[in-house]
Write a structure and sequence with these properties.
By secondary structure, the protein is an alpha/beta fold. The strands form three sheets. The protein has a six-stranded mixed beta sheet, sandwiched between helices. It has a four-stranded mixed beta sheet with strand order 3-4-6-7. The chain has a three-stranded antiparallel beta sheet with strand order 2-1-5. Helix 4 packs across helix 5 (126-135). The chain folds into two domains: 6-135, no CATH class; 141-318, Leucine Aminopeptidase, subunit E, domain 1 (3-Layer(aba) Sandwich). It is built from ten helices and 13 strands. The protein starts with 9 loop residues before the first helix and ends with a helix.
Length: 320
């Protein structure tokens, strides 16, 4: 599982701020929707705890509580580091947001959870937490980000490798450099990888847990190029599913030194990924297309817009 990411809470922090400003039911629903989004995207919570005292269960921590009404206690957690500084004399533990909600519901005699208790807090009853947990079912999503793929905290990232798996330039070299020498040592044990296929390794010093290495085709303008490129995306997704991974980040495979034009590669990448997700509607895979620059990002957004327009037109034509 990827390390919990406090950056996923930016929307939540803004929604809590707005709730305290407006105090309306709509603002509360917006805050709940933001918490749900953080739960679905691997957001984290900073939890203040105290070491267990002698005579108690060995190891672990006592999670701090707060009284919300007479005789009723709730667990507490913080959505960002600034709020967490308000918890003196505590050991701060980073929890996965969804897992801490589950943890809260397992505790006896606990009425709920309070986020940011010494600031603009959000009080969540156990009943409300159960409703959120039921709503946080896995869903398939496609995201686009202009970013450095080596910095992403997805469960796995995809490397556009060459068939030797010995590292190279571009994204391949960047991933090997960020992962450290152990990645190359593991790759040497795999015996290479054919074009269009994929293999998996640990990610070592990268924030991700695994690296899926796939070998894209060198562009020659043939139909075979498109078939092999489609196979790269499908093979990578199949391998991620085989390892029960639910978040994956792709670079623009073959679009660097292998010369695949973006205007041809982007529709292949998106259409094949969308087809794979449509075949598994309940799997719950978050796919990020990690775009190296603004031009690449624009190609993905433009194609996404065209796909949405085509789908809307098809539904209108069918009378749905």
């Amino acid at each position: 599982m990827a390390r919990p990411d406090l950056r996923q809470n930016e929307y939540l922090d803004a929604a809590i701020e707005n709730f305290h400003k407006e105090g309306s039911q709509g603002a509360l629903q917006e805050a709940l929707a933001a918490l749900l989004a953080a739960m679905e995207r691997g957001g984290g919570l900073i939890v203040p705890a105290e070491p267990v005292t002698p005579g108690q269960e060995r190891g672990g921590f006592n999670v701090r509580k707060i009284e919300i009404e007479k005789g009723q206690q709730a667990l507490i957690a913080f959505t960002n580091e600034k709020e967490a500084e308000k918890a003196p004399d505590s050991t701060l533990v980073l929890y996965d947001c969804k897992e801490f909600v589950k943890f809260t519901l397992r505790q006896a005699n606990i009425a709920g959870l309070v986020l940011d208790p010494w600031g603009k807090s959000l009080v969540l009853s156990c009943e409300l937490l159960r409703e959120l947990l039921c709503a946080a079912k896995p869903k398939n999503h496609i995201y686009f980000e202009q970013c450095d793929i080596t910095a992403l905290r997805t469960e796995c990232i995809v490397n556009a490798a060459d068939s030797s798996l010995r590292g190279g330039g571009g994204v391949d070299g960047a991933i090997h450099k960020a992962a450290g020498p152990e990645l190359l040592q593991e790759c040497k044990t795999l015996g290479g990888c054919p074009t269009g296929r994929a293999v998996i390794t640990f990610a070592y010093d990268l924030p991700a847990k695994y690296v899926i290495h796939t070998v894209g085709p060198k562009y020659r303008g043939r139909e075979e190029d498109a078939r092999l490129l489609r196979s790269c995306y499908r093979s990578s997704l199949d391998l991620a599913a085989a390892y029960d991974l639910h978040s994956i980040a792709f670079p623009s495979i073959s679009c660097g030194s292998y010369g695949y034009p973006l205007e041809e590669a982007v529709p292949i990448a998106m259409d094949e990924t969308a087809r794979w997700l449509a075949e598994r509607p309940d799997y719950g895979m978050a796919v990020i297309f990690a775009c190296y620059d603004q031009m690449t990002y624009s190609f993905y957004l433009d194609h996404a817009k065209k796909r949405a327009e085509a789908l809307a037109s098809a539904e209108k034509g069918s009378g749905k």
